[in-house]
Amino acid sequence: NAGVTQTPKFRILKIGQSMTLQCTQDMNHNYMYWYRQDPGMGLKLIYYSVGAGITDKGEVPNGYNVSRSTTEDFPLRLELAAPSQTSVYFCASSYGGKNTEAFFGQGTRLTVV
Amino acid sequence: GESVGLHLPTLSVQEGDNSIINCAYSNSASDYFIWYKQESGKGPQFIIDIRSNMDKRQGQRVTVLLNKTVKHLSLQIAATQPGDSAVYFCAENRAAGNKLTFGGGTRVLVKP
Questions:
Q1: Which residues 69-98 on chain A approach chain B with CB closer than 8 angstroms?
Q2: Residues A80-112: pLDDT tens digits?
Q3: In Å, how far are B10, B56, B78 from A45, measured between CA atoms?
Q4: Choosing a second label site near A13 at 20 to 30 A (CA), which of A48, A63, B66, B96?
Q5: What is the number of alpha carbons within 13 Å of residue A1 lying toward its C-beta?
Q6: Looking at the partner chain, which of B89, B97, B103 has a beta carbon nearest the beta carbon of A48?
Q7: Under DSSP, is residue A2 helix (H, G, I), strand (E, B) or coil?
């Protein structure tokens, strides 16, 4: 089982550029999440989804967009990249409900210069 | 605002001793409280959770305690091993959307 797969692992963007961080899971989980983690800090929720076709904002959604057209995929779009978006991005998924265990990808390290 | 936070940023523990990691929370509406472990360069990994109507839950070498009166959560690791060196996050899970909110993390360093 691959679990949660994120691509790319590393990326350097110039200010104003855009990109999409890919996330896919093969566990048939309904719930998917995007977090960012700044150095030495905790994880901040950007967006989450409770199922295909449904997305909701988290704590820090500004500057990002998501879509959930399938159960497996939950891409995160950065438009007009800014230095403040330099961070490590983690995608996660879970069954939800009483099953609280979320499975995380390996992360995407993004630098905006 | 609603938040989950930690008291200690770094905890140094002698190998074989017990570790206690603390966490304070402010939202009483959470359904579950969860502990995650994050090793360097990796994503967080689930350790154990506790439902909000429980006081204590035990796993393999770990125990989570929940004190709702003072809104305090702790993770106890028995006989700490070098492989336990990591950053530990507490998190809360709310039934509405199964949203996971994380605290700032405590780094545990195990000394040989």
A1: 90, 92, 94, 96-97
A2: 999 999 999 999 999 887 778 999 999 999 999
A3: 23, 27, 31
A4: A48
A5: 8
A6: B97
A7: coil
